[in-house]
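User: Show me sequence and structure for the first protein, then do the same for the second.

Assistant: Starting with the first protein.
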Amino acid sequence: MQVPVIDISPLVARSSGRDEVARQIGAACRLHGFFYIVGHGVDPALRARLESLSRVFFSQSEDDKMRLRMALGGKAWRGYFAVGNELTSNRPDWKEGLYLGTELGPDDRRVHAGIPLHGPSLFPALTGFRETVLTYLDALTSVAHRLMEGIALSLDLPADYFAARYTTDPLILFRIFNYPSRPAPEDMEVLWGVGEHTDYGLLTILAQDDVGGLQIKTTEGWIDAPPVPESFVCNIGDMLDRITGGRYRSTPHRVALNNSGRDRLSFPFFFDPSFDAMVRPIEGLPGAPDDSAARWDRANVHAFSGTYGDYLLGKIAKVFPELHSSVEINDAGFAEK
């Protein structure tokens, strides 16, 4: 079983042929929730520049990288974490990373209100890094909007269904991950670059370098999603699973330990509902069965009730428990301890 490659240029151009692209996306979402996209219009030079700058950042000393540690990002949840400091299912992942997102200043109402995951990023002092990241986020945001139009059409919904309800002001989160080729210490019991998980929101658009390691769980077992030149890998998240009543399932995936002899870079871009959006099933769809017994986290996304922010914060608490403990949630809002 292979992950399909879909040319989305008719979606990007909003031209004839986009209904056929939507059909292909729908088929991929029903099959196993993953697909490659080409014809996306993102400048290859921009992506190459991002990769080059990221390698320079990760080649720095640990002390230099820790000057951007996530603890300094506060409630915005931005910054650097060292190898082994992010958990999946309570086990450390063998990667390091830089958390980024939509750049918001202190005058933004959400920043002023202290809403988590909103604020400025902590950028390395590398020439062109900030500008490259922000340009890349703009480019991927545009692609994500077109893809969500395709997903809406695949469900026989108006093209603007998701934009009108969830993504007029989407929550954009971006990660730059480095998977070192060096082995993990035996006493850490590290098994994966990233352990089995599903993504939380609507849509993930992933750029990966030529090393590989991404694996997808299917009904026939785990399959590889190797690098395809000039492509992105897309997958759907828990909230799209919930919205579609389980018609489109968020698929578990993982990253194998990197034994290639070269460090591996990946760039997941998360296109999610706004933080305060109430996430509800599409009207008229049959109710989804409880599939928690088969899920990696034993959770039932269809039983969840609340905003996307509620769901996301609950998940983050398990990924960065120490960092989460530094933020107190009370009736008045969010305040740092």
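Switching to the second protein now.
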Amino acid sequence: MSRDARWNALLELLVERGRLEVEEAATRLDVSAATIRRDFDQLAEQQMLVRTRGGAVVHGVSYELPLRYKTARHASEKQRIAKAVADLIAPGEAVGLTGGTTTTEVARALAVRPDLASGSPALTVVTNALNIANELAVRPQFKIVVTGGVARPQSYELVGPLADGVLGQITMDVAVLGVVAFDATHGAAAHDEAEAAINRLLCERAERVVVAADSSKLGQRAFARICAAGSVRTLVTDAAADPETIGRFEETGIEVIAV
């Protein structure tokens, strides 16, 4: 197991449990206790956790795993979802992309589509995610529009009222929404209210909304609502999604694509 994969696993265990002992972590990951101690020390230096005698606890009261440590979660599902979402977007369209691991994969899938290799522009991409803008800015055939705002370190997203000035002046063909929860009754949601507010505005400025979410996000609720389920035209998820849950989305008029 590589160091990055080990760190991902350690941090996810910490998120689940709040506290983790060295010996327990070593057993779970099948590595030596010395390796886990070194990992804990290095993660503590980055303020990703707090070292304790014999183990570690999560850093702070409100803990959310930063984007760079979420990429290993449901990776193959997210890549399949991303390709299916990218296939829904036509050349020349204006596309809004929120932040998140799945939408980052959507950006990568768009970047390698052969029919988007040229054009003036081949796509216009509007995003509040710094990492997505960074990845796509090297594609000269893409017109990249970045909202203003204050960077949120957990998700690389720009949030706050500074983004309103840009988003209030544009319209988009489609908004691709990454979520932490999507429920047929309660709608799409995020953990952070500022993040949800920007995502909501992106949705309002788009002709159609696509939610890109792996099956672990479906039927779930989160603190900050982004939009109602009725505002979403298409849900793209993975084939492990519960049929009853898919049926509830379809009853609201949402087209569901399971890949």
